[in-house]
Amino acid sequence: MLPGTIMYVYLGTAGESFVTLGAEGREKTAAEWTLLGAGLIVTIVVTLFVTRIAQKALTRTVAPEDNESAA
After folding, report:
1. d(CA 2, CA 37)
2. In a structure prediction context, what are the per-residue pLDDT tens digits for the chain, which is 71 residues long?
3. Are 4 and 50 spatial neighbours (Cβ–Cβ below 8 Å)?
4. b vs e for 18-53, b when ≥16 Cβ sit within 10 Å of the residue's Cβ?
5. CB–CB of 28/71 below 8 Å?
């Protein structure tokens, strides 16, 4: 749950930055946009990584129970 929550918070922050672009009187620099983009990419990669680990652990946990009930 935590990686997904972090991703949604990040997307909300990035969305707010995009919506208020120009309303604050200054534009974001290229470095700020680069960091926002990098943060988004890292957040997605970490979320996918943690999801795969959780799926593998769940499969290992559930699979032995399925085999026992079939026997």
Report:
1. 20
2. 777 788 788 888 877 777 666 665 667 788 888 988 888 898 889 889 988 999 999 888 887 665 555 55
3. no
4. eeeeeeeeeebeeeeeeebeeeeeebeeebeeeeee
5. no
Cα–Cα distances (Å) from 38 to 31, 32, 62, in that order, read 10, 10, 36
Task: Tell me 4's DSSP state.
Answer: H
Per-residue DSSP letters for 5-71? Answer: HHHHHHHHHHHHHHHTTTTTSSPPPHHHHHHHHHHHHHHHHHHHHHHHHHHHHHHHHHHHHHHHHH-
Domain ranges of the chain: 2-70
Q: Shortest CA distance to 18 belongs to which of 3, 30, 28?
A: 28
